[in-house]
Design goal:
about 550 residues; Glycosyltransferase; Beta-galactosidase, Chain A, domain 5; 2 domains; about 30% helix
Length: about 550
Amino acid sequence: MTPKQAGLYLDAVRHMRPRQVIWRARRLVPPRVLAAGIDADAGVSWRSLPRGLGVNPAPQTGESAPHRTRVFEAVGVSRPFPRAGFWDDSADGLLFLFHLHGFEDLAAYAAVDDDSGDDFWAEVVESWLAEHAVPRGPAWHPFPTSLRLISWSAAISGIAGWPEALKDRLAREVRRQALYLRRCVEHDIGGNHVLKNGVALGVSGVFLGDEAIQAAGMALLRREVAGQFLADGGHEERSTSYHRMVVHDLEDLRRALGDESPPWLADVVEAGTRWTEAMAGPDGRLPLLNDAWEGPALPSRSDEPLTVLAESGYFVFRHGQDQATFDAGPLCPPHLPPHGHADALSFVLWGDRWPVVVDPGAGAYTGAARNRFRATSAHNTVEVDGESQCILWGDFRLAGLPTVRAAQPRHHADGVVTIAATHDGYRRLDDPAVHRRQFVWWPGGGVVVLDLLDAKTVHQASSRLHLAPGLEPGEGHRVGPFAARALGSGEARSVDAVYAPQVGATRPAKALELALTAEPGALFGWSLLRDGYEVADMSTRELVLRREGGADLSVPLTWI
C-alpha cells in the first residue's frame, strides 16, 4: 500500500462512526456462520399483505418484465433464465447480482392482476431455493436479502396461482432469512441500507405475524430515521432518487402495518413527501442530484416562489413554468460518502416546463465511468486545474470533502433573489483556491451565475452547463427559451457530453463549456436569460440587470 492509499483509508476511518467500525468486523463473518442455529424447518403461519408492496416507483435500472421474455435486465446488461451460473456468475457485476437475488421484478409482477407468469416465477424461485438454501454471498448479503424478504412476502400474498406447498416453503424461508437479517443489519454502511433492512424486518414481521421480528424492525427504524432524516424532511444522503426510495419504503411499511402504524412513521413519511414535492420540477420530475436516475412524474409539487431546504442545502426558485434549483449543501455526510458527487454550487434549470440545464445522473456504479459521472466536470459548477472538488477513489469513497457554505437569500427589486455561497474543495492545490459563487434568480428573465476564485495566482478554470438530452445549442448558444452567454473572459463552446436516465444506460448530450485562465478575484460566469433581458454590467460589488423597456436594476453583491 502506498502512502497516498494509506492516507485515503485513514481519512475514511477517521470519518466513520463507532457503530460503523464495530460492525465492519461482523461483515467478515460468513453468512453460513451467522445463520447457524436458526430453525429452518419450524412451521409458520402468514397473513396476506396489501397488494403492491415492494414495487419500486422509480427502478434504478429501469422497468423490466422477465416473465414475458425469460430475460432479466438491469444496469445495462441482460441474462436469460435458465442458464449455467445464472445466480452466481459475477461477470456482469455485483449490482446485477443484487438485482437478481432481490427479486424486485417478482414484487412488480405480484402487484398486477396477471397470472401469465405464475409458472415462470415459481420456476425461478425454486431454482433459487435449490442453489441458495445454504447461506452464502452475494445471495445472502443483507441488502438483497432485505429486498427478497419484501418481494417474497408480497408474492406469497398476491399470486393466487402458486401451489400452497410452494407458498408454505417460501414463508418458512421468509422467517429464516428475517431472523438472519436481524443478526447482520448493515450498520457498517448505514444510510439507506439500514433503512431497507428495517423495513424488511417490519414488513416480514407483519406478514408472519411475528411480533419479535416486527418489533426489531420498528425499533431499528425509529432510531435510524431520527438520525438520517434532516429537519427539512430530506434524507441525509441528499440524493433525490434514494430519498424517494426510502420514503416509499417507509410508506410501504405504513401500509403493511395499517392501524398499527405509529405516529412517528406517519410524520417522517409526510415530511419526506413534502421534500420531494419541493424538489420536483414543472414537469413533475426530480432532478438527478447525487447518485440518481429518472422516475415517473410526481402527482403534485410545490408552487412556492422560493423554497429553502436549509439542512439539505437546496434552494428552489419558481416562476410560472420556469424553475431553478441551486445546490449549496454538503456533498454527502462525512461518514456516508457512497452516493455523493463533486457538485458543490451546481444548479439545474427548467424553462417553459422542460429541463434545460440538468445534472447528468449516476450512469455507473463501478469502473472509470463511475468517476466520470461523479466528477466536478460532470456538473454545472467550476472545475479548477482539471481537478474535482474532492478526491474520488474506489467506487463509493470521497476524501478531502469541501466545506460548503451559503448565506441567506437576499431579495431585491423586480423579484430578483441572490444567494452567495462558497466552498474550499480546492484547498489541496499547490496554490489553494476558494470558489465563490453568486446565484441570481430573475423571475421571468432567467438565471445569472457569477464566479471568482480566491487565490494567490492564476488557475485554469472550466465552467460547464450540461444540457438536457436532445437539446442542441442554437445560434448564439440559445438553449430552450434562454440565450446562454459567457460572462468575463473566455468564450463558450459546445462540447459532447453524456446523460444517464438510469444506472447502466446513457444517452448522448451536449454541454456548454467556458474555459479560461482565471485571475485571482476576477469575475466570470454565465447568464441564461430570455430575449429582452441582459446583464448590462458587473463588478464584485454590483450586478446591473437590464430589461427591455425598463430602467436598469442595480443588484448589490455581498460575498462570503
